[in-house]
Amino acid sequence: MIERKQNPIAQRQDSASPLVETMKAQQAITEALSAMIKTAIDKAKDGSVPHLRLLLEFAGLYPAPPPAPPEDAGNQVAQELLRRLEIPPERSC
User: Mean of the pLDDT values across residues 4-14?
Assistant: First the structure.
């Protein structure tokens, strides 16, 4: 007897759609998130650097945000450009 393989397209229609599967995964993660964070905190307290880094990244504390440029940084760039192009700065009246 010859065994017939099921059409992959028909097989996909039989199973749940990728969107439904994604939503199920999101729900499962959401339900377990509190316990997962508590476990990560406990491991970080025990000295686990990867767990600490994960928590710091999750909280937005690592890597540190770049420092804000000084308020007059744009003016400094303009002044340097004028100097290099040998254009005298305008004098205000």
Answer: 59
